[in-house]
Batch of 2 targets.
Target 1
Amino acid sequence: MNDVRHGQVRVHGILSNSYKQAVRVALSFDFPFYGHYLRQITIATGGFIFTGDITHRMLTATQYIAPLMANFDPSYSKESTVQYLDNGEVFVVQWERVRLPGKESVGGFTFQVALYKTGTITFSYRDIPLSVDAISSAEHPVKAGLSDAFMVMSPSSHSADLPQQMIYEYHRVEIDIAKVTNYSAVEFTPLPTCLLHKSCELCLSSSQTSGCSWCHVLQRCSDGMDRHRQEWLDYACSEESQDATCEDYSRDSSSKSAGLANTGVIAGIAAALVLLLALILVALYINYHPSTASPLYLIQRRKSYWPSLKFQKQDSGYTEVEGGGSEKDSIVEAGPC
């Protein structure tokens, strides 16, 4: 971070002077994460990035990129900072000289994570003054790795209760914390996912992936275990794709297109006949009633420009807030389908 051109690196004032805080940051490029393209991430003081769309109380549990998640407190020292840079090809976050509460005398931890436009992720460690397995997890989880999850609405067991939001962790990568030492690094190379395929043929026949199904109504390829899980359930994609082939979808589409085309022709002819009849009636009415108000109004409008319609732009009024009421969130680790 010290060697890059001046002005690219930003030291985040809030994160560098806070404890257990997280700030949402926009990326200048689409970052592919488990087949999903992210344009916003959340940087946390605790040595990790949260990648979810919905901020919830279990921020450290799922949907994270964690070079070293622990109970760091950047507010302890003026030397402690959380900084980042974005050059359009890579987004880097660095936790600089951050310390652990109760173990400040051990020294500061300095490490970073780099998110590349290609989807590659690297963890780099410069100063790790304490063995990671000796860091207490009593006040904060201690992790190093990746995780992703999906959120679905689960019907409540009681009719009067609202549906519960269930978070399912469908994949996790954990690195050996014994290898998190001074001047070490880890690189993650992304594998192709079913979401990569944009056609039925590639979805069902590609050698790059396995277990993929094509949902014709959504025009999406998936194994059913990704962030679009709720849509996959809502549109019964698993049932639709059973024993179905791309030829079946093509025949259905052709039949529907032909039916719609015939319907469109009939509707067009009917509309033309109605319009023609209306024009004849208007012409006859004007001819026999030249001095009434209505014909004069029609003639005036015909000679002038149609008035333009102006719509006032309204503020959407959306704000990011934490939900109130009783806790309805829970986590389930998704097993094989």
Target 2
Amino acid sequence: MYSVEMPLQLYFNTEEPVAIKDVADSLLAMEKLAKRLPIMLSQLSGVDIDRYELSVQRIESGSLIEALGMLVFLSTPEQRDALIKFLETHPMGKPLKYGLLTMLVLLLISDSYKLLTDFTKDDAPSIQGNHNTIINLTADQIDVPQETLEDALAYATGGNRKELVRAAMGVTKPIADHSNASLHVGDAGSNVAIPAEAMAEVPFDANLNAQEHDLPSQNVLLQIRALDRDKTDSGWWGVLPSVVGDKRLKIYFEDGVDIRAIAFRPEVHADVTVTYRADLNHATMVPKHITVSHIYPAERQ
């Protein structure tokens, strides 16, 4: 096997003490996050990487520095030479070799924070804005089109998103919930960073299991596809064409809703709430069921 070694250094800028356990957790999480780096590196360089090894070079206290090294293995000397050429004869020059992996790590972490806040539905303008900035800065510094970098990121973050988000949160655990803390590529002077205002928006205590979200709609067409005139909690199925398309969903009724007003009508207008189930491993929320709160009389439709 032929190999190329690349450094990876993160600077955790914080005024508060960092717990030893959190540093250990961060390093273990980095191992899980780092397995996505060869995927991105292959996408960007066009070189097939067979495997990798991650090692710790040094840890510095104060504002924490984690300096690591990644050894990537290639099957032929031609593949090794192609990767070295990508790293060292790049328009950005040799310095690219010493910042590329760290920039990609920061991009993975930033993308994970965006996924997490999208999932929890928290308003996080600093995370979204800074994520766009990191993409632009990284694409500029490694001299690739932004679309190429975004494609590589999407390819690397596919699959188990829960694992990705947990790993990203684990890497930054040393400064989770610290005031005015930030994360930088290489050192505190780096302009490729997740600043304090973005870190403050990260919901580190979020539940990563599937969550439900209720979205109400008023006076919408509800088509009845199956019913049980004797029950309000089973046997009812319907479609909301203007809300969820042609997907058939189970129907429930709030207390006080008279199902006799709907029992002999194939379609009605109603006030409803659609319950969606979201999961980090799915890009969209999936509608699960309908709850009817009000049925409009036929003559008023």
